[in-house]
Amino acid sequence: MAAGPPAPMEGRVNWQERLEYGFQQRHGGPLEDQNNAPPQQFIMGRWETYAEEERRHAAHQHNLRLQNDAQRQIDHDRETLQHQARMAELQRQREMEALQHQAQQDELQRQQQHQRDMEALEHQNNVAQQQQMDQQAEAERTQEAINNNQALAALPKACRPYHDPTQRFSMGPMSVKCPHCHALHFKSERLTNSSNIRPRFGICCLQGQIQLPPFSEPPQLLRQLLTSSTPRARNFRERIRQYNCAFAFTSVAVKVDEAILNGARAGPYSFKIHGGLYHSMGTLHPQEGRRPSYAQLYIYDEQAALAARNIHNPNLNHALMADLQDMLIANNPLVPLYKQAYQIMQETPPELQDNVRVSIVMQPGDDPRRYNLPTANDVAAIIPGSGEEDVNEHRGIILRHKNGGLKTISHLNLLYSPLHYVMLFPKGDHGWHTKIDIVQPEGGSARSKYVSQRCYYAFRLHPRPMEPSDLFRGGRLFQQYIVDAWASIEQSELNWVRHNQKTIRADLYDGLRDALRGVQGVDLGQMGKRIVLPASHPGSARHMYQLFQDSMAIARHCGKPDIFLTMTANPNWAEVQDNLLPYEPDDDDPDQREKNQTASDRPDIVARVFAQKIKAMLKDIKDGVFGDVHGYVFTVEFQKRGLPHIHLLIFLGDLTRSAMPLMLTPSSPLRSLTLWLIPCCMRPSQSA
Ligand SMILES: [Zn+2]
């Protein structure tokens, strides 16, 4: 800008200053100095000057204005340019910022992407690592499981975790027939040297060496009572021992253990005795002042006999008693024999009657299989006499008239059973006697000429389809018959021991000489004759002692026993239940409950099934169900209620024994060992 007075502010011109300033420019001195000119001229000149000044001033003003405008325009333009430049700069900056932002965004995105990529990669690595670890762990687990399985497989079966067996052990049906006697058997009862296809059995008939005639068909009334479900039949079976006793010819002298039977708790019936068992018979004529009983009643008038029986048994069904008496009189051949014997006694002179005796000597006959209804003369010789005759007591029944009291009947007599068990043998079927011939086997010879008592009863106690099953329907009386048979066999064996002391070299045990030698203060009068029961007699003290010594020897050899195992017979075993005989339904009462026998009615079946179960269990044990077994000792006992049970001690081998503590720790699944013990005997054995 040019030098000059400062640009006045628009609209506010200081005129005084302007004037002074313009004057000085034109005249070269201050205004006061001009006052020296002539007044008129001076005034005129002054006006012109002023006008000129005014004009100049206006021009100047105008110029100034123009200059100002131009300047302003220039300024404006410049400012506009500056503004535009600033705007451009701003725009440029904005664009730069946008670019930078974009770049930052890109960078950020790139970084994020990179981060994501890195994370994804890391994740993949992690996943892969985890998978690898999982696979490794899985492989380790698999290996461990394989190892465990191998260890488990090496364990005995009973020591592995217990699982319910898919199927219970079954002996199969009792339907295998003995080829010789047609007795029904379980397959496992066959002889071990016979095959499954052609089984042979020894327990029933010694492979055909024993052939006995079947029992007679019972009278219709008795069969109906034994097979029906009517209340009368059930009542008869409930009291069959009492009914039998009412009609028996002989009485049984035995101490029956009633303690279990009369307890508060009702349980299955079991016939248990103490001491010996004898069948006794009194005189045919009752003593003075005594009521007639047993065989005496058959001599009496029928009505009087029935009345006497009813007086003895007021709790029995009297109508049924009359029917049973008629049945026996009509069917039992012993009734006419007794009557005939009594007749002979009566015919003797009165002075001889006190001592008269009549022997009934049975004749087994040439063919023991022909059991027709016998007449007196067919089967028996009636020998009157005074008792001095040489009659074998085992073959004959000596009847006395009045004197002599009760006499026992030999258990070797063939009438021993039919005289007492009239409800089992109503037609007087002969029992065992000493002269039953054995059938000699082909190409060999039997050990004995005659059938032993034990073999006879074993034959009789096997049911056969073609034989009447009435014996097995006797219930409580059947139990008594079996106990009687056992006692009789025992008695025979004891008698044999008594009469064969030399054979068993009893002098080795001569207690009398020992007493003389060693013990002081022994009253020799009390020593008596000593009968030695050898160790071969089951149940004798020497037998038990020998077993005890044997067990101790096993324990000394094998160490202490490791397992004490008890198995009890279960009356609900399928093999028992399946073979109980059914009763015919009662048409009058279709809702009656009793359809089958109970297990206590068939001790024969229970004992046979239990024996086979023991066999299967011992086979499992020997096959290694508990591992390496070095030995075992067991005893079979019968419970108070009549069911058998076994106590078994097992001696394990050293390896199995050392593993036992591990098997039985509480955390181990093998604590289920005890669970195993009971059903292990039910597992199907390999041979079954
Ligand atoms: Zn047989």
Keywords:
688 residues, mainly alpha, three-stranded antiparallel beta sheet, 11 strands, binds zinc ion
Give an account of the 3D structure.
A hairpin with a 5-residue loop joins strand 10 and strand 11. Among the domains are: 15-108; 220-437, no CATH class; 559-688, no CATH class. It is rod-shaped and about 235 Å long. The protein starts with 14 loop residues before the first helix and ends in an 8-residue tail after the last helix. Helices cover 44% and strands 9% of the residues. The protein has 688 residues and is mostly helical. It binds zinc ion. Residues 178, 180-181, 183, 201, 204-205 line the site of zinc ion (ZN). Zinc ion binds at residues 178, 180-181, 183, 201, 204-205.
Secondary structure layout plus pairing:
Elements: H1 15-27, H2 39-154, E1 176-177, E2 184-185, H3 220-227, H4 231-238, H5 240-247, E3 251-256, E4 273-281, H6 296-299, H7 302-312, H8 318-331, H9 334-347, E5 357-362, H10 376-379, E6 380-385, E7 396-400, E8 407-409, H11 416-420, H12 453-460, H13 476-499, H14 511-517, H15 541-558, E9 563-568, H16 574-577, H17 603-622, E10 629-638, E11 644-652, H18 654-663, H19 673-680
Antiparallel strand pairs: 1-2, 3-4, 4-8, 5-6, 5-7, 9-11, 10-11
Helix pairs in contact: 3-4, 7-8
Zinc ion binds next to loops.
